[in-house]
Specification:
Elements: H1 16-20, E1 27-31, H2 36-47, E2 52-57, H3 60-77, E3 82-87, H4 93-103, E4 107-110, H5 117-122, H6 124-144, E5 149-155, H7 164-179, E6 187-193, E7 195-197, H8 203-212, E8 217-219, E9 225-226, E10 228-230, H9 231-244, E11 249-253, E12 259-260, H10 261-271, E13 289-291, E14 310-312, E15 318-321, H11 328-343, H12 347-356
Parallel strand pairs: 1-2, 1-4, 2-3, 4-5, 5-6, 6-11, 7-10, 8-13
Antiparallel strand pairs: 9-12, 11-15, 14-15
């Protein structure tokens, strides 16, 4: 089964000039380089012939895997690119500064994050530490070492968030937007996209596994919809947006219409050569689609932009919008309070701080 068959639209073609602008013959660093998006970013970056590619990753096995794969690609294609594998946490600013300084990093793609909604909901402190303070540490290190371009991989769940993961990603965006006020050589930008087909934790590998076992395929709600894109599309969007960036902008991809998850499940069942159960064909069907109820913090539908002030860019499928910010001084006070509450594991305080932010955070009941 080809994952692209599930998309329901033509993949967005990349602009070659935008793809190479911040990468070709430059020193590029990817945080979370061993993750689903991070590893695809590395593959796409390598195709644009950087001088050096720094892989920054916390998970040793994931780093080993992507390092081995890219070394093989460099050898096969005879590319003139130095590959550097760095173990480290994005929460460790000294490690980040040392890495960026040692290799004179020019472009950063910040992909490292905790992205699984239920896990972050149950591990609030670690979610905030990694997604918010990890982004802050990485951005501060970029400023201190004179990095030219810093791009944050964000999510549609950051828009009017109903879960902690989405709230942490919106706060990470606000951190970068506030840092724009500081005089520095670094241009900050954020890229939001929807669900990535085939990435770790996405519904596609889960549904595939459930169908192979004979079902049922579990969908939380009959009407739940999501925007979808392919992993290469997501990586290409990030790279191109960093080339379009003016400081503090949020970019989103025109991903067509949202897809009903129940329709996606049905399409997958058919592509795998089977039929779904329904009231009309309960005898002929092979696989049941079972509705399990919305999970805590889960929305029926996602949005990509908060406001209506959407503008086009040089890429016909990439849009931008300027959204509400918090000034650096005010945000610093909020982050200090949040840091103290995280240190003391004061979960109620943490939730109160998130709810008081101008991010339209609505907790589930």
């Amino acid at each position: 089964m080809d994952v692209a068959d599930l998309l329901g639209r033509a993949p967005v073609a990349p602009n070659k000039k935008l793809m190479s602008q911040n990468i070709s013959d430059k020193v590029v660093m990817v945080t979370g380089a061993g993750g689903s998006i991070g590893s695809e970013l590395c593959r796409q970056i390598l195709s644009q012939k950087p001088k050096v590619l720094v892989l920054f990753e916390l998970n040793e096995f994931n780093l080993y895997q992507i390092d081995q794969e890219l070394k093989a690609t460099i050898g096969r294609l005879k590319l003139d690119c130095k590959l550097i594998a760095c173990l480290g946490s994005v929460q460790n600013e000294n490690r980040l500064i040392n890495t960026m300084k040692a290799h004179s990093v020019e472009t950063i793609y910040h992909s490292a994050a905790y992205k699984h909604v239920p896990l972050v909901e149950d591990n609030i402190v670690e979610g905030i530490r990694n997604n918010v303070f990890g982004t802050l540490a990485c951005a501060n290190a970029a400023i201190k070492t004179g990095v030219n371009n810093f791009t944050l991989i964000s999510t549609d769940k950051a828009v009017r968030p109903t879960n902690v993961m989405g709230a942490t990603k919106r706060l990470a965006e606000l951190v970068l937007q506030a840092l724009v006020e500081k005089e520095s050589e670094t241009t900050f930008t954020m890229v939001r996209f929807g669900n990535v087909l085939g990435s770790s934790g996405s519904v596609v590998p889960l549904f595939k596994k459930q169908i192979r076992k004979g079902g049922p395929v579990t969908v939380t709600h009959p009407d739940i919809t999501r925007y979808f894109m392919l992993i290469p599309e997501a990586a290409q969007l990030v790279i191109q947006a960093s080339s379009l960036a003016k400081n503090g902008q949020v970019f989103v991809l025109d991903m067509g219409d949202p897809v009903k998850i129940s329709d996606l499940a049905t399409r997958m069942i058919h592509l795998m050569g089977m039929k779904e159960f329904s009231k009309s064909n309960s005898e002929d069907g092979d696989i049941e689609i079972k509705y399990t109820g919305l999970r805590p913090g889960e929305k029926l539908y996602e949005e990509l932009l908060i406001g209506d002030n959407v503008e086009g860019t040089r890429h016909q499928k990439i849009m931008t919008a300027r959204e509400e910010k918090i000034d650096y001084k005010s945000l610093s006070l909020i982050l200090n309070n949040l840091d103290e509450s995280c240190r003391n594991y004061e979960l109620n305080n943490i939730k109160n701080i998130l709810q008081q932010l101008p991010i339209n955070y609505l907790t589930y009941k």
